[in-house]
Amino acid sequence: MFSDTTEFHRWFEQRCAANAYKVAQVPLDRLDGWSMEADSGNLVHRSGRFFSVQGLEVTDSGRAVEAWQQPIIVQPEHGILGILVKEFDGVPHCLLQAKMEPGNVNLVQLSPTVQATKSNYMRVHGGRPVPYLEHFVAPRGGEVLFDALQSEQASWFLAKRNRNMIVRTDADIPVLDDFCWLSFDQIAELLQSDDLVNMDTRTVLSGAVALRRPAVGRGAHPDDDTFDGALVRSWQQDGRSLHNTVELLSWFTEAKGRCTLSRRLVPLAGLADWSRRDGIVAHAEDRHFTVLGVGVEASNREVTGWSQPMFAPRSQGVIAFLAKRVEGVLHLLVQARIETGALDRIEMAPTVQCQPADYLTDRAGGPDPAGRPPYLDTVLTAGREQIRFDAVQSEEGGRFYHARSRYLLVEVADDFPLEAPAGFAWMTVRQLIGFVRYGSHLNVEARSLLTLLGFLPAAVREPQAVA
């Protein structure tokens, strides 16, 4: 445990220096343990496990572009993302890990207690056991506080889900070299830093935002505190929501019913507008992302050296909620987003979620005929006084290479219209938090942003409304 975050940063620097890491780009056809199938060109591991990179054909998408083809990561097994919680002197602390991932722009970030695919924790790679795994697989000790199958980045994964867990223990837990206990107050401070708390930790912590002790007495809010008095508190003031939960579930169900998206796996080698060249798989116009290979060395991982393919986005993403106060109650504008690889095809997402560079020009260099996503310009042109949160965070570093997004909360003025286009709905933070408890509702980008917002200091959470 640390007395403050200054002490943590000293420890973190020491742990980064104590281990040796190396990541080098390797042509896809020279990746150790990986090969391109002769008939399909799909990238597969010699074990038949871990994941593969295949082609995906999308039709009738209901989006600005109705049909396209792209590479996609196929990883049907569920991983475990788990955080162990223990109270010290009545203060809950989370056991987090300084973990290297080859795709992290700064290599080492704070990960959950356990962050492992099934192939990893079943030791298909022949490496060392995953520390603390016994707390998250049956039979386990401790009390399960949160447990849900949650989606991963559906633009690049096909139907990928991980088990997000929070387990509380009273047992004596030995703390290994790269692990540390952090209070929720300390985590809240660290979340304000760019590229420090990784995506897997953020998605699990959205479950902490959703946890609330039972209400006591008439009129008490059931979500006043997390873990019986830790930092994370509701943004909500007393007041009415614009829509009740039944209406929001009906809106979401209607969006699912309207969705016509169809998809099927196709050979990677036959994708339109994609080709293998110079040791990577790239788009014909050098847009969207590339598939590249890396060779990795890490002295403190279960396996100290390996190779793998990764997806590398061509540009930085923007992920943002628009916020508006309705009779004093903060509402977020949520979209029912058609997700290429999502299990249910539709998930609740932030108001804006895209790579803006993809919408600048068409093939001839003119304005993109597909049009810019709704509200993107509202976010990008927001004044400093409107921006309540703004930080650049890394996406999942185990599969995505230097993937980073700018996460924002933008509070709009009182005269901003409440009428929302089809596929969008205003809901309170409390209502959105409620949907975290269930899988296949909020996408990973929404959960990550909700964690960042849920841990904001009160002075930032509750500013005066924009005039």
TrEMBL record:
Coiled-coil region(s): none
Signal peptide residue numbers: none
Domain of life: Bacteria
Organism per entry: Streptomyces pristinaespiralis (strain ATCC 25486 / DSM 40338 / CBS 914.69 / JCM 4507 / KCC S-0507 / NBRC 13074 / NRRL 2958 / 5647)
InterPro entries documented for this protein: EvaA-like, EvaA-like_sf
Gene Ontology terms, MF aspect: lyase activity
Protein name: NDP-hexose 2,3-dehydratase
dTDP-4-dehydro-6-deoxy-alpha-D-glucopyranose 2,3-dehydratase domain: residues covered: 6-206, 246-453
